[in-house]
Amino acid sequence: MRKGILRAFSIATFADLQKLQGDLLRYLCEEHTTLGVPNGDRDRSRWPLHRLWVDLQAKVRALAHLGVCRLDGKTAALEARVAQYAQSVYGYLKAVAAVRCVQQHKALISEREAFGELARRMWELHDPLSWQVEVERRIAEVERGAW
Fold first, then answer.
1. Cα 139 to chain center, whole Å?
2. CA-wise closest residue to 35 among 66, 9, 56
């Protein structure tokens, strides 16, 4: 399970997981994943649920749950994606810091210095027209699920 789903359920510790396991499992087996029986329809969402999956869902419903609001799967997925992007950028920020330390013969530079360097470089690349075009293209991709 990805961190984004755990964050969406406010699960940060094993104690949180134990407290919210019923809600999490309910989301996973009812909204995230299902097991269907092929019936010739090309659209898998119209396949009837396998009897083992129906039994699993019944067992999960019997677990204690706090009634956490249903997650919007799309919202949770998008939040997970943004978290993944942030993690990637943070990794690049550390790499920028390491390069600058080697170049300047410093033991360490702060994250603010590295961020300033990265921001300065990004502003050099920024083009308002291409920004608009690319962001609009990516909006369309996100909306049709092509990312």
1. 17
2. 56
Instruction: List the one residue out of 47, 5, 41 whose CA is nearest residue 26.
Output: 5
Query: Residue 109 domain-assigned?
Result: yes
Last residue of a domain, one of 42, 62, 82: 62
Which one-letter DSSP state was computed for residue 9? T
Asked if residue 81 and residue 44 are part of one domain, the reply reads no
What are the tens digits of pLDDT across the range 16-74? Answer: 888 888 888 888 888 788 898 999 888 887 888 999 999 998 888 888 776 654 555 56
| Integer Rg of the chain from CA | 22
pTM of structure: 0.51
User: Which domain, by its residues, includes 108?
Assistant: 73-143
- The per-residue b/e assignment along 112-131, b for 16 or more CB within 10 angstroms, e otherwise, is ebbeebbeeeeeeeeeeeee
Structure tokens at 67: 């009634």
Residues 55 and 81 in one domain: no
> What single-letter DSSP state applies at residue 107?
S
Q: Is residue 23 part of a domain?
A: yes
Summarised one tens digit per residue, pLDDT across range 124-140 is: 999 999 999 999 998 88
State the residue for tokens 């300065």: 120
Q: Are residues 125 and 90 in the same domain?
A: yes
